Design the sequence.
């Protein structure tokens, strides 16, 4: 239901690869709620995805940018303000990549060059993005930045390997930068810890299908969908949550607060 929660707001949405992406759904929901925004992704990701169709659907411009490059990020915020006609009100950081996971390298055997690349792309990129925006004064007072994360930052999931450490760093950056940006410009920064979600990135993790079903049986409300996550992000972009900052917000149907469910116990009892 569209009720203009983001009417008049300008944004930057990163990471939309295809229709399964959470970022794709966020763009659709933000558009429905009256926002205008630019889309951005790394050039290589853009060649792999379908972002042009999303841009047409949401009447948005695309600005290619490598989120690890200060030069590209400076250009991103400069062009976004020119295209949208003013400062940015919300930013979605939906950027994540682990070469170790892609190459099926076990955590204890991590390739450290790959590990460093994952940190730069998936966590340090948030710091760089915020540092560039703050230096340029590109985000409006009471603006909102949301980064997508996962609960492996708090609990161990063997299949998530080095991304668990990387997401922990991402969440720490959100807290630390959230303090400084909040003090100076009232900009709020939060992370959303989403359920296992059937995105292109998620399904590339070994054993994802079985874990998706497990989490769905643990969570009292079941796994939250990408569309549900997009709705939640929209509320965090809106003025309704203007006093929420430096938080890691679990959006997982109650999974993070549930030790075990009756479904799992009954199934084990049957075995």
Sequence:
């Amino acid at each position: 239901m569209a009720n203009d929660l983001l009417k008049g707001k300008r944004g930057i949405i990163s990471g939309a690869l295809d229709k399964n992406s959470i970022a794709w759904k966020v763009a659709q929901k933000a558009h429905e709620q009256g926002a205008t925004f630019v889309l951005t992704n790394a050039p290589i990701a853009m060649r792999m995805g379908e972002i042009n169709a999303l841009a047409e659907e949401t009447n948005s411009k695309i600005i290619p940018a490598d989120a690890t490059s200060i030069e590209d990020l400076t250009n991103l915020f400069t062009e976004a303000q020119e295209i949208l006609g003013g400062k940015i009100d919300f930013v979605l950081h939906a950027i994540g990549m682990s070469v170790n996971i892609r190459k099926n390298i076990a955590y204890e055997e991590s390739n450290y060059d790959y590990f460093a690349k994952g940190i730069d792309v998936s966590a340090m990129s948030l710091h760089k993005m915020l540092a560039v925006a703050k230096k340029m004064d590109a985000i409006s007072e009471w603006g909102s930045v949301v980064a997508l994360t996962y609960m492996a930052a708090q609990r161990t999931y063997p299949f998530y390997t080095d991304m668990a450490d990387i997401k922990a760093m991402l969440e720490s950056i959100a807290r630390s930068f959230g303090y400084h940006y909040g003090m100076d410009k009232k900009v709020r920064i939060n992370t959303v810890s989403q359920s296992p979600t059937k995105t292109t990135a998620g399904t590339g993790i070994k054993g994802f299908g079985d874990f998706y079903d497990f989490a769905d049986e643990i969570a009292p409300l079941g796994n939250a969908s990408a569309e549900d996550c997009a709705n939640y992000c929209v509320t965090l972009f809106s003025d309704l949550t203007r006093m929420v900052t430096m938080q890691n917000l679990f959006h997982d149907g109650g999974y993070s607060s549930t030790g075990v469910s009756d479904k799992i116990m009954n199934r084990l009892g049957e075995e």
Q: What stands out?
A: Residues 112-136 form the longest helix (25 residues). The domain at 10-270 is CATH 3.40.50.720 (Rossmann fold). The beta strands are 10-14, 36-40, 61-62, 88-93, 139-149, 188-194, 248-251.
